[in-house]
């Protein structure tokens, strides 16, 4: 059975949404990707939606919405996006903090840099799961 990975941050509107989308794109054969936060937003960040559509041809508006931690299934791995506040706690077998700055309100270049960093980290996470470097 594939491990379940939750990407979490406070609002579940930008970085964690991008990570969920890229997890599904690049690592669907290795893990199930979810995202959530401690507060709901009416809409996910439309700059993030546009950049992910431009770079990866994924329309996050179709399947993504802001979700709360309580909406998550039981997960094996928690990835904190870098909250700059006290990150929410979710019970898991493995937790790590990717420490990514929130690109909200910044330039497209910042969003692109964030997306590419998330892509690299998602691929690395999948590789570590496959190589059993993460104890589950």
TrEMBL record:
Organism per entry: Clostridium acetobutylicum (strain ATCC 824 / DSM 792 / JCM 1419 / IAM 19013 / LMG 5710 / NBRC 13948 / NRRL B-527 / VKM B-1787 / 2291 / W)
PANTHER family registered for this protein in UniProt: ARSENATE REDUCTASE
SUPFAM superfamilies the UniProt entry points to: Phosphotyrosine protein phosphatases I
Record keywords: Arsenical resistance, Plasmid
Domain Phosphotyrosine protein phosphatase I, first and last residues per copy: 3-128
A Gene Ontology BP annotation from the UniProt entry: response to arsenic-containing substance
Matches recorded under Gene3D superfamilies: 3.40.50.2300
Domain of life: Bacteria
Keyword Endoplasmic reticulum part of the UniProt annotation: no
Protein's name according to its UniProt entry: Arsenate reductase, arsC, protein-tyrosine-phosphatase family enzyme
């Amino acid at each position: 059975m594939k491990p379940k990975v939750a990407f979490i941050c406070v609002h579940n509107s930008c970085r964690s949404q991008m990570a969920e989308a890229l997890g599904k794109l690049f690592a669907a054969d290795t893990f199930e990707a979810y995202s959530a936060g401690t507060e709901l937003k009416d809409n996910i960040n439309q700059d993030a939606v546009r950049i992910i559509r431009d770079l990866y041809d994924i329309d996050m508006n179709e399947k993504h919405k802001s979700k709360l931690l309580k909406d998550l299934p039981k997960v094996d791995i928690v990835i904190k996006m870098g909250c700059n506040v006290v990150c929410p706690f979710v019970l898991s077998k493995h937790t790590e903090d990717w420490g990514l700055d929130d690109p909200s309100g910044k330039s497209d270049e910042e969003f692109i840099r964030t997306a590419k960093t998330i892509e690299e980290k998602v691929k690395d996470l999948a590789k570590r799961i496959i190589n059993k470097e993460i104890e589950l």
